[in-house]
Amino acid sequence: MANEVATKETFSTALTAELESQKAALPENFNTARFVQNAVALLNGNDTLADFAKKHGTAQIKQGLMRGAYLGLDALNSEMYLVPYGSQLNFMASYKGLVKLAQKYSTRPIKTIYSKVVREGDLFEETIVNGEPSINFKAVPFSDKPIIGVFAVCQYQDGGLIYEVMSKADVEQCRKSSKAKNSPAWNGFWSEMAKKTVLRRLTKSINIDMDQKLVEAFDSGLEIETDSAELAKKEIAEQANTEELVIEGEDVTIEDAEFQ
Prior knowledge:
Blueprint: H1 3-6, H2 9-21, H3 32-44, H4 47-56, H5 59-71, E1 80-85, E2 88-93, H6 95-105, E3 110-119, E4 123-129, E5 132-138, E6 147-156, E7 161-167, H7 168-176, H8 184-188, H9 190-203, H10 212-219, H11 222-225, H12 228-238
Antiparallel strand pairs: 1-2, 3-6, 4-5, 6-7
Helix pairs in contact: 2-3, 5-10, 6-9
Protein backbone atom coordinates (compact mmCIF):
# COMPACT_ATOMS: atom_id res chain seq x y z
CA MET A 1 0.00 0.00 0.00
CA ALA A 2 1.00 3.65 0.12
CA ASN A 3 3.16 3.38 3.23
CA GLU A 4 5.42 0.93 1.42
CA VAL A 5 6.66 3.85 -0.67
CA ALA A 6 7.17 6.54 1.94
CA THR A 7 8.60 4.51 4.80
CA LYS A 8 11.65 3.45 2.83
CA GLU A 9 14.54 5.34 4.35
CA THR A 10 16.10 5.79 0.92
CA PHE A 11 13.28 8.10 -0.23
CA SER A 12 13.39 10.54 2.70
CA THR A 13 17.19 10.41 2.68
CA ALA A 14 17.35 11.14 -1.04
CA LEU A 15 14.84 13.99 -0.76
CA THR A 16 16.70 15.50 2.18
CA ALA A 17 20.00 15.29 0.29
CA GLU A 18 18.47 16.98 -2.77
CA LEU A 19 16.99 19.77 -0.65
CA GLU A 20 20.33 20.35 1.06
CA SER A 21 22.14 20.47 -2.29
CA GLN A 22 19.66 23.11 -3.54
CA LYS A 23 19.55 25.07 -0.29
CA ALA A 24 20.59 28.33 -1.95
CA ALA A 25 17.58 28.14 -4.31
CA LEU A 26 15.03 27.48 -1.57
CA PRO A 27 12.96 30.20 0.16
CA GLU A 28 14.42 31.97 3.17
CA ASN A 29 13.82 30.07 6.44
CA PHE A 30 12.82 26.93 4.53
CA ASN A 31 12.33 24.07 6.99
CA THR A 32 13.83 21.00 5.35
CA ALA A 33 12.93 18.54 8.11
CA ARG A 34 9.28 19.61 8.16
CA PHE A 35 9.03 19.53 4.37
CA VAL A 36 10.41 15.99 4.23
CA GLN A 37 8.12 14.90 7.06
CA ASN A 38 5.10 16.32 5.22
CA ALA A 39 6.22 14.67 1.98
CA VAL A 40 6.39 11.28 3.67
CA ALA A 41 2.97 11.85 5.25
CA LEU A 42 1.57 12.76 1.83
CA LEU A 43 2.83 9.56 0.25
CA ASN A 44 1.71 7.44 3.19
CA GLY A 45 -1.86 8.65 2.67
CA ASN A 46 -2.02 8.63 -1.12
CA ASP A 47 -2.52 5.24 -2.78
CA THR A 48 -2.54 6.84 -6.23
CA LEU A 49 1.01 8.13 -5.77
CA ALA A 50 2.02 4.82 -4.22
CA ASP A 51 0.77 2.95 -7.27
CA PHE A 52 2.57 5.40 -9.55
CA ALA A 53 5.81 4.85 -7.61
CA LYS A 54 5.51 1.08 -7.94
CA LYS A 55 5.12 1.37 -11.70
CA HIS A 56 7.52 4.21 -12.46
CA GLY A 57 9.74 4.71 -9.42
CA THR A 58 9.99 7.73 -7.12
CA ALA A 59 12.23 9.97 -9.24
CA GLN A 60 9.33 12.02 -10.64
CA ILE A 61 7.74 12.26 -7.20
CA LYS A 62 10.95 13.68 -5.79
CA GLN A 63 11.22 16.08 -8.74
CA GLY A 64 7.65 17.30 -8.22
CA LEU A 65 8.25 17.84 -4.52
CA MET A 66 11.38 19.83 -5.34
CA ARG A 67 9.35 22.13 -7.58
CA GLY A 68 7.03 22.77 -4.66
CA ALA A 69 10.00 23.40 -2.39
CA TYR A 70 11.44 26.03 -4.76
CA LEU A 71 8.12 27.87 -4.65
CA GLY A 72 7.57 27.38 -0.92
CA LEU A 73 4.40 25.34 -1.43
CA ASP A 74 3.36 22.49 0.85
CA ALA A 75 1.51 19.50 -0.62
CA LEU A 76 0.17 18.41 2.76
CA ASN A 77 -1.44 21.85 3.14
CA SER A 78 -3.14 21.48 -0.28
CA GLU A 79 -1.03 24.25 -1.80
CA MET A 80 0.18 21.96 -4.59
CA TYR A 81 -0.61 18.58 -6.11
CA LEU A 82 1.30 15.76 -7.76
CA VAL A 83 -1.08 14.19 -10.23
CA PRO A 84 -0.27 11.16 -12.43
CA TYR A 85 -1.15 11.46 -16.09
CA GLY A 86 -0.18 8.20 -17.72
CA SER A 87 3.50 7.63 -17.11
CA GLN A 88 4.06 11.31 -16.24
CA LEU A 89 3.64 12.93 -12.85
CA ASN A 90 2.51 16.54 -13.04
CA PHE A 91 3.14 19.32 -10.55
CA MET A 92 0.24 21.75 -10.14
CA ALA A 93 -0.33 24.71 -7.85
CA SER A 94 -3.79 24.68 -6.23
CA TYR A 95 -6.12 27.67 -5.80
CA LYS A 96 -4.59 28.21 -2.38
CA GLY A 97 -1.12 27.90 -3.86
CA LEU A 98 -1.81 30.45 -6.60
CA VAL A 99 -3.03 32.98 -4.02
CA LYS A 100 0.07 32.38 -1.90
CA LEU A 101 2.44 32.78 -4.86
CA ALA A 102 0.77 35.94 -6.13
CA GLN A 103 0.96 37.57 -2.70
CA LYS A 104 4.55 36.50 -2.20
CA TYR A 105 6.06 37.36 -5.58
CA SER A 106 4.04 40.33 -6.82
CA THR A 107 6.25 43.38 -7.32
CA ARG A 108 3.29 45.49 -6.23
CA PRO A 109 2.21 44.50 -2.69
CA ILE A 110 -1.17 42.77 -2.68
CA LYS A 111 -3.77 43.40 0.01
CA THR A 112 -6.16 40.65 -1.05
CA ILE A 113 -6.77 38.34 -3.99
CA TYR A 114 -9.71 35.99 -4.49
CA SER A 115 -12.29 34.66 -6.95
CA LYS A 116 -16.07 34.21 -6.71
CA VAL A 117 -18.85 32.61 -8.71
CA VAL A 118 -21.86 34.67 -9.84
CA ARG A 119 -25.31 33.04 -9.81
CA GLU A 120 -28.61 34.08 -11.30
CA GLY A 121 -30.10 36.78 -9.10
CA ASP A 122 -26.76 38.04 -7.75
CA LEU A 123 -25.85 41.69 -8.24
CA PHE A 124 -22.70 42.11 -10.31
CA GLU A 125 -21.65 45.45 -11.78
CA GLU A 126 -18.48 46.59 -13.51
CA THR A 127 -17.83 50.34 -13.52
CA ILE A 128 -15.01 52.68 -14.52
CA VAL A 129 -14.95 56.11 -12.88
CA ASN A 130 -12.22 58.58 -13.85
CA GLY A 131 -10.30 55.73 -15.40
CA GLU A 132 -10.41 53.63 -12.24
CA PRO A 133 -12.12 50.20 -12.51
CA SER A 134 -14.46 49.01 -9.80
CA ILE A 135 -16.64 45.98 -9.11
CA ASN A 136 -19.85 45.91 -7.10
CA PHE A 137 -20.91 42.39 -6.14
CA LYS A 138 -23.67 41.27 -3.80
CA ALA A 139 -24.54 37.58 -3.69
CA VAL A 140 -27.93 36.22 -2.72
CA PRO A 141 -27.26 34.35 0.55
CA PHE A 142 -27.20 30.55 0.28
CA SER A 143 -28.39 30.65 -3.31
CA ASP A 144 -28.28 27.42 -5.30
CA LYS A 145 -29.41 29.00 -8.57
CA PRO A 146 -27.41 28.27 -11.74
CA ILE A 147 -23.94 29.79 -12.06
CA ILE A 148 -23.71 32.33 -14.88
CA GLY A 149 -20.11 33.48 -14.48
CA VAL A 150 -17.05 33.84 -12.31
CA PHE A 151 -14.64 36.65 -11.48
CA ALA A 152 -11.33 37.21 -9.71
CA VAL A 153 -10.12 40.36 -7.98
CA CYS A 154 -6.69 41.55 -6.89
CA GLN A 155 -6.62 44.62 -4.65
CA TYR A 156 -3.22 46.18 -4.04
CA GLN A 157 -2.13 47.78 -0.81
CA ASP A 158 -1.87 51.15 -2.57
CA GLY A 159 -5.58 51.01 -3.40
CA GLY A 160 -5.25 49.88 -7.02
CA LEU A 161 -7.44 47.11 -8.30
CA ILE A 162 -7.41 44.69 -11.22
CA TYR A 163 -9.91 41.97 -12.01
CA GLU A 164 -10.84 39.30 -14.53
CA VAL A 165 -14.34 38.21 -15.53
CA MET A 166 -15.39 35.03 -17.33
CA SER A 167 -18.84 33.88 -18.34
CA LYS A 168 -19.87 30.28 -17.83
CA ALA A 169 -19.33 29.77 -21.57
CA ASP A 170 -15.77 31.13 -21.25
CA VAL A 171 -15.01 28.67 -18.48
CA GLU A 172 -16.50 25.80 -20.45
CA GLN A 173 -14.32 26.74 -23.42
CA CYS A 174 -11.25 26.37 -21.21
CA ARG A 175 -12.57 23.12 -19.81
CA LYS A 176 -13.16 21.66 -23.28
CA SER A 177 -9.54 22.41 -24.16
CA SER A 178 -8.29 20.62 -21.06
CA LYS A 179 -7.04 17.06 -21.10
CA ALA A 180 -8.80 16.75 -17.73
CA LYS A 181 -12.21 17.96 -18.93
CA ASN A 182 -13.98 14.84 -17.67
CA SER A 183 -12.06 14.53 -14.40
CA PRO A 184 -13.83 14.03 -11.05
CA ALA A 185 -12.81 17.57 -10.07
CA TRP A 186 -14.63 19.17 -13.01
CA ASN A 187 -17.59 16.80 -12.82
CA GLY A 188 -18.07 17.10 -9.07
CA PHE A 189 -16.73 20.55 -8.18
CA TRP A 190 -17.32 22.74 -11.22
CA SER A 191 -17.59 25.98 -9.25
CA GLU A 192 -14.25 25.47 -7.51
CA MET A 193 -12.51 24.63 -10.77
CA ALA A 194 -14.07 27.70 -12.40
CA LYS A 195 -12.78 29.90 -9.57
CA LYS A 196 -9.27 28.58 -10.10
CA THR A 197 -9.51 29.05 -13.87
CA VAL A 198 -10.36 32.74 -13.61
CA LEU A 199 -7.79 33.24 -10.85
CA ARG A 200 -5.10 31.70 -13.06
CA ARG A 201 -6.03 34.12 -15.84
CA LEU A 202 -5.88 37.06 -13.41
CA THR A 203 -2.38 36.13 -12.24
CA LYS A 204 -1.15 36.71 -15.80
CA SER A 205 -1.87 40.42 -15.25
CA ILE A 206 0.15 40.54 -12.04
CA ASN A 207 3.81 41.47 -12.36
CA ILE A 208 5.59 38.55 -10.72
CA ASP A 209 9.24 38.80 -9.71
CA MET A 210 10.70 35.29 -9.98
CA ASP A 211 14.05 34.02 -11.16
CA GLN A 212 14.13 31.55 -14.03
CA LYS A 213 14.22 28.49 -11.78
CA LEU A 214 11.06 29.59 -10.00
CA VAL A 215 9.33 30.43 -13.28
CA GLU A 216 10.08 26.94 -14.58
CA ALA A 217 8.73 25.40 -11.38
CA PHE A 218 5.60 27.58 -11.49
CA ASP A 219 4.85 26.79 -15.15
CA SER A 220 5.64 23.08 -14.90
CA GLY A 221 2.80 20.82 -15.92
CA LEU A 222 0.64 23.46 -17.62
CA GLU A 223 1.00 21.67 -20.95
CA ILE A 224 -0.51 18.59 -19.31
CA GLU A 225 -3.34 20.40 -17.57
CA THR A 226 -4.47 22.16 -20.73
CA ASP A 227 -4.12 21.23 -24.37
CA SER A 228 -2.34 24.45 -25.37
CA ALA A 229 -2.19 23.50 -29.05
CA GLU A 230 -5.97 23.08 -29.17
CA LEU A 231 -6.51 26.42 -27.44
CA ALA A 232 -4.20 28.09 -29.94
CA LYS A 233 -6.08 26.63 -32.90
CA LYS A 234 -9.39 27.90 -31.53
CA GLU A 235 -8.09 31.39 -30.86
CA ILE A 236 -6.48 31.63 -34.28
CA ALA A 237 -9.77 30.65 -35.91
CA GLU A 238 -11.78 33.09 -33.79
CA GLN A 239 -9.41 36.01 -34.34
CA ALA A 240 -8.34 35.33 -37.90
CA ASN A 241 -9.62 38.72 -39.07
CA THR A 242 -8.28 40.81 -36.20
CA GLU A 243 -5.12 42.90 -36.30
CA GLU A 244 -3.76 41.66 -33.00
CA LEU A 245 -3.64 38.05 -31.86
CA VAL A 246 -3.10 37.05 -28.24
CA ILE A 247 -2.94 33.35 -27.41
CA GLU A 248 -3.51 32.24 -23.84
CA GLY A 249 -3.53 28.79 -22.25
CA GLU A 250 -5.69 28.46 -19.17
CA ASP A 251 -4.76 26.47 -16.10
CA VAL A 252 -7.31 23.85 -15.05
CA THR A 253 -6.19 21.01 -12.90
CA ILE A 254 -6.89 17.32 -12.97
CA GLU A 255 -7.64 17.31 -9.26
CA ASP A 256 -8.12 20.15 -6.82
CA ALA A 257 -8.89 19.47 -3.17
CA GLU A 258 -8.55 22.69 -1.22
CA PHE A 259 -12.32 22.99 -1.17
CA GLN A 260 -12.82 19.70 0.67
